[in-house]
TrEMBL record:
Residues 262-538 form the SAM-dependent MTase RsmB/NOP-type domain. It is found in: Cytoplasm. S-adenosyl-L-methionine binds at C354, A355, A356, P357, G358, G359, K360, D378, D406, D424. Pfam families: Methyltr_RsmB-F, NusB. InterPro entries: MeTrfase_RsmB-F_NOP2_cat, MeTrfase_RsmB-F_NOP2_dom, NusB-like_sf, NusB_RsmB_TIM44, RCMT, RCMT_RsmB-rel_pln, SAM-dependent_MTases_sf. It comes from Camellia sinensis var. sinensis (China tea). GO terms for molecular function: RNA binding; RNA methyltransferase activity. It comes from the Eukaryota. GO terms for cellular component: cytoplasm. Keywords: Cytoplasm, Methyltransferase, RNA-binding, rRNA processing, S-adenosyl-L-methionine, Transferase. This is SAM-dependent MTase RsmB/NOP-type domain-containing protein.
Amino acid sequence: MAYLLSNSIRVLNSAELYKASKPSKFANENRGLKSTTSPRGRGPVHKTQKLNLEVSPHRAVSAVRLMRIEFGGAFADLLNENGKGSGDNEMGYVERTLGFRTRALDDRDLRLVLLFIPFSYFVTDIVGGTIRWRRYLDHLILALCHGENTFRSIEPLLLQILRIGFYEIVQLEMPPYAVVDENVRLAKVALRPGAGNMVNGVLRKLVLLKENNSLPLPTLEGNDRAQARALATLYSHPVENNSLPLPTLEGNDRAQARALATLYSHPVVFNAYVRANSGKGFTRADLVMRLQMLKVPHDISPYLNDFVRIKTGMQIMMQAGLLKEGLCSVQDESAGLIVSVVDPQPGESIIDCCAAPGGKTLFMASRLSGRGVVSAIDINKGRMRILKEAAKLQQVDDVITTIHADLRIYADDNHVKSDKVLLDAPCSGLGVLSKRADLRWNRRWEDMEQLKNLQDELLDAASMLVKLGGVLVYSTCSIDPEENEERVAAFLLRHPEFCIDPVDKYVPTDFVTEHGFYSSNPVKHSIDGAFAARFVRSL
Ligand SMILES: C[S@@+](CC[C@H](N)C(=O)[O-])C[C@H]1O[C@@H](n2cnc3c(N)ncnc32)[C@H](O)[C@@H]1O
């Protein structure tokens, strides 16, 4: 899971940016920015407070975020990790990297994937998409730059601007000449006129090739290795060591093969899944009526009573204020089905052990119909803040208690026993590869051992909070057996006081494994991959 990976957010100053690449023929001109030596002696920092209203703020912010992610180890969804704090600093990062500020972006522009999956062209779309398609985009840029040497000499910021332009034209199919103009302006102002000319030339070439349907794409020819590389480019997937390797063609193992199959089938996000907030008295029938009035095409979820599927028109829904008013929220059905496995009933006491940012807490709370309590525990303060805000917005805060703590310490110190306990454990996120753009490039297989140990420790801690006859649910958003079935088997060996309660009473049979667990798979079910096991305490 994200939090286990490096989370250091540092922006390279301009000197470092230039150092990161060889001198470029595009880098020869003076950027014309005033700079002085940093008090920390780390090279020049820009003194300017220049506000530039001509440059597209979305693209400027996106370019800077891409720099932070690629060179500073920040995440594509970095605001989710840190709550609003990162957003407040956004313009500081922009100014330090580009030398000027842009129009400030509001919350709707900036806030992010987990609670509001954006289906419009916001910063997160551009950043997420550009990262997701990086290998594919770089292949095209290289082809249009005439050779590896030229490509390698492109300075990092210029490369990000090109990637943004390529992504917008090739994947988002935005009006090409507007894209060209905006990215040329950004390159000119942030770098220098020559950089703008270069962006102009390359993007225009791309537009022509796309219009003629003759993009220079790799073909599936040659030996296994060559074909694997071509596939990796077409699906924008890493082949290097330390990343998710390509399966099957080079004989890697089952979990990796499944992960990539997922990716191949769904390189782009499928539907938006929206949950009507029945806790606020807003039923799915109410939601459907509003969607009909807004002319937003939708389908009813076949699996969950409160859920609706939306293919297009998410932006219309957002503009109508349905999300802002807390009437509904974006939530994948795989997460909703985990709540079905918990099966919250009015009057129950439930502990959500790893609760933030709160998707499942909020759904469970809405199921209590105002009677009972969900105690939401999480170690991450920023994410807890998001949970609290959402609980208020959705008017379910009367049945939610938030506890900022390390579950392991909390369980040792507090001898509370609840009817039901959910442990939605930190995991690799292999079930959500199609949404988590950065994961495929950042995941390190060495982290897995550490992650599995944490999952075991958290399961032990969560089990201490379950009363006799009570229920424990262990869930992940991974499709990797090492994090799922193997963790369950190890837990049962350590805890004979628990036995498996098959989930067939709670979710459609299509999701029930032969051992009685819940398992969703993006390829099979067109929702995120997830897993849940339900145990009952018998001793
Ligand atoms: C998969 S996410 C939970 C998602 C959440 N259940 C939801 O539906 O929105 C895992 C969470 O575990 C939390 N976490 C990790 N280690 C923890 C610990 N030792 N104690 C409590 N929470 C922890 C992380 O902060 C993260 O928010």
